[in-house]
């Protein structure tokens, strides 16, 4: 009895010691596992070989792969508008926006100073501290954000696509690329400032077809005429242009004018499963 009473605590102590060792082992296994997970998690983000994402790939699929969105819903995508000047680009890269939207024009557009150098500026601004070449280098070097380029003049398109092509022969762009222009006259615009559709599309087919096209109408919203919106003719004209294109196509629209023209847009979207 006495000996067993003496033994019990000692067995207890041994048990506790064993459990203690086990706990320590479990904790160190956890630490090891955590280290493994961390180690495994880091490389794919920058250096580990991973199949590059083609520039004509689906933006939602790309963002889903990155873990930026948890389902393929376009409303979850966040955009940084007008990431043009160096300071704006820097701010956009620091932001958590998933896609950079930037405007490309030609330096000194339509003045005697005009060059063939693509720059990042929204009209009426025609000069910039950021050339398209510099913009692209910085974006590709420092982020995995998607790219949407909005061309403000047909003159900027050829030189920009040449830069893209050269760059993509050196490094993988490895993200979705949208090429955007307003190619048709839309509601309320008095003069035609649209980018020439056939020239825009043929330059893209010739120089950089691996993209998603974003094709819109020039628009002006007049609050005195709240029910002036896209007409069936405008929408049909777009369809006659995009119907045979090989790329994915998206349509940027002026949100305030969409509801009244919804039957036309609904028809347009139903014409294709792309
Ligand atoms: C052309 O550039 C010069 C100097 O860069 C500037 O002074 C001049 O105003 C510009 N001309 C036009 C038409 O923009
Ligand atoms: C991009 O990164 C490369 C290698 O890290 C570096 O040599 C190059 O200068 C960087 N370019 C820019 C524009 O930051
Ligand atoms: C677009 O450019 C082509 C070739 O220069 C020209 O024939 C056509 O008329 C232009 N289209 C419009 C709508 O200006
Ligand atoms: C375009 O995409 C195809 C595959 O879809 C790829 O083989 C080709 O290298 C890409 N070209 C460029 C310039 O990215
Ligand atoms: C458009 O708006 C005007 C003025 O608000 C109104 O009188 C007219 O009935 C509207 N037309 C349509 C087709 O809704």
UniProtKB/TrEMBL annotation:
Entry protein name: Protein FAM151A
Residue ranges of domain Menorin-like in the record: 73-274
Protein family: Belongs to the menorin family.
Domain of life: Eukaryota
GO CC term (a single one): extracellular space
The keyword Disulfide bond is annotated on this UniProt entry: no
Keyword Membrane recorded: yes
Positions of transmembrane segments: 12-35
Subcellular location: Membrane
Taxonomic lineage from the root: Eukaryota, Metazoa, Chordata, Craniata, Vertebrata
Keywords linked to the UniProt accession: Membrane, Transmembrane, Transmembrane helix
Residue ranges of coiled coil: none
Topological relation to the membrane, as annotated: Single-pass membrane protein
């Amino acid at each position: 009895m006495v000996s067993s009473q003496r033994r019990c605590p000692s067995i207890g102590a041994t048990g506790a010691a064993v459990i203690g060792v086990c706990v320590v082992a479990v904790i160190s296994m956890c630490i090891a596992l955590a280290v493994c997970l961390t180690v495994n998690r880091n490389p794919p983000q920058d250096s580990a070989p991973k199949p590059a994402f083609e520039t004509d790939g689906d933006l939602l699929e790309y963002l889903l792969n990155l873990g930026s969105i948890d389902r393929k819903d376009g409303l979850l995508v966040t955009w940084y508008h007008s990431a043009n000047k160096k300071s704006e680009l820097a701010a956009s890269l620091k932001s958590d926006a998933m896609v950079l939207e930037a405007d490309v024009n030609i330096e000194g557009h339509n003045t005697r100073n005009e060059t063939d150098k693509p720059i990042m500026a929204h009209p009426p601004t025609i000069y910039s501290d950021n050339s398209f070449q510099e913009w692209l280098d910085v974006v590709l070097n420092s982020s995995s954000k998607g790219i949407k380029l909005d061309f403000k003049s047909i003159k900027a398109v050829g030189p920009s696509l040449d830069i893209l092509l050269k760059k993509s022969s050196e490094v993988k762009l490895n993200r979705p690329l949208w090429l955007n222009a307003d190619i048709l006259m839309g509601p309320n615009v008095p003069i035609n400032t649209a980018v020439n559709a056939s020239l825009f599309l043929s330059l893209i087919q010739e120089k950089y077809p691996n993209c998603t096209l974003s094709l819109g109408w020039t628009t002006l919203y007049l609050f005195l005429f709240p029910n002036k919106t896209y007409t069936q003719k405008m929408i049909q004209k777009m369809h006659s242009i995009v119907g045979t294109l090989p790329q994915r196509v998206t349509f940027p629209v002026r949100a305030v004018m969409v509801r009244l023209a919804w039957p036309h847009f609904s028809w347009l979207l139903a014409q294709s499963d792309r």
